[in-house]
Amino acid sequence: MKKQILFLLAVILLFSATDSFSQYGLSKGRVNSSFNANWKGHEVVMNVSDCGPETGYAGTIMVNLGGVPNTPFYCLDLCTNINLGDSIVDSASTIPEAIYITNNYYPAAPAVLPDSSEACAVQLAIWHFRNAVNVDSVSGPADIVAIRNRAQTIINETIANSGSSVVFPNLQILPGVSPDDFYVRTTDTAGNPIAINGIVLSMTGSGTLSTYTVNTGVTGNSPDVTVTGADNGNEISATASIQIPSGVTYCGLNAIKQLLVLGKTTTGLRTATTTWGALPVELSSFTSSVNLRNVTLNWSTTSESNNSGFDIERSNLNSEEWTKIGHMNGFGTSETSHNYTYTDRGLATGSYSYRLKQIDYNGNFEYFNLNGEVVIGTPNEFSLIQNYPNPFNPTTSIDFNMPQEGFVSLKVYNTSGKEVATLVNETRAAGYYTVNFNATNLSSGVYYYRLESNGISKVMKMALIK
Predict the structure, then answer these.
(1) 106: which residues sit within 8 A by CB, 6+ positions away?
(2) Which end of the chain is more exposed for a tag (fewer CB within 10 A), N or C?
(3) What's the predicted TM-score (pTM) here?
(4) Domain at 279-377, CATH from 1.10.443.10, 3.40.640.10, 2.60.40.10, 1.10.645.10
């Protein structure tokens, strides 16, 4: 293990795993600041794409999860570091393979191999699904052959069974019969109702609640809570000590987000939130999925009344400002369910929040927040993308991807090899980039653009037609 770095391997981040539930619970933790006897794993050597041959720790990571010490996690992605002592936050994401593995193998189930070797095999299996790691190529401790065989068994069983893996929203705030009421619902990790005492309620902005503490009975439902004097957009929260399902994804709070998955179901504090409003549109789900640098939002309504449509808004983690990025028309008044999809394309590496602004025909509006941050990771290879549009007149966009930090040069040349424009000439961090090229002062013809960084160069051709 490299000094001060917990993980060093990997090529991230096909964060194709997705599902954030609306009103899903959030929890936070902190990675232990030093190793102790609770850490189970081994150092291994892998050759992983751009990471090359690297030595890294493969096994359970101990986290203080909402006051629960030594809670085991596994690493989800490779090559993105997390430091000992870093904070992590529940991103409310679900990944079928990780859910299946963490529900059925160590530490959720007894180990087949000695604990450290079993944890190492489980970690390699997770990396296989996340980053296409070939477990047969891994070297390490004396019993590495047994570890590789065990990892392959876990992989095979996961392929056969992971389709049934789901995570249920086990702490929810739901509308009551009266438009001024809501209630809290609690379930176990299988979706069955459970009774939870001492659920603490709060609300931002104006207005009051009829009570600020509720219990749920054997039905999993609390008595109705009445909201008085609240404005649309006020946020209601419910915090409870409840089961946090294994396989839920947590992200680090550094500039580049390392992803961890909870290694076994753990009882800890979680908070569910919802946005208060009296507009008659009922959302049954609001989820996200990530493909490279594109985020697809999906939401469904069970009924709509006087619904003009939805503005889609996005906020960067480092900014409190919301930006409208799109609009979807509603279905007016309808008693049937409707599904909506919107894709936000070409995002830079970082963390984002999303919300829907539902607007009726009278101009009234209500917000629905996507719980959990959406994380765009770093590319796993150096690449230059064909400009768009092409041919163009007089502007076009050029995309390029950086798997690691380095000095970048992006220049444009004519067919004689003469440089006609310098678009980038500076050090940039790993990430996805888009550069606009304005050729107003150039004549029609064929041009070449060349990208250079870390000793690698790529060239592509484009056509300017005026």
Answers:
(1) 40, 112, 115, 118, 119, 122
(2) C
(3) 0.55
(4) 2.60.40.10
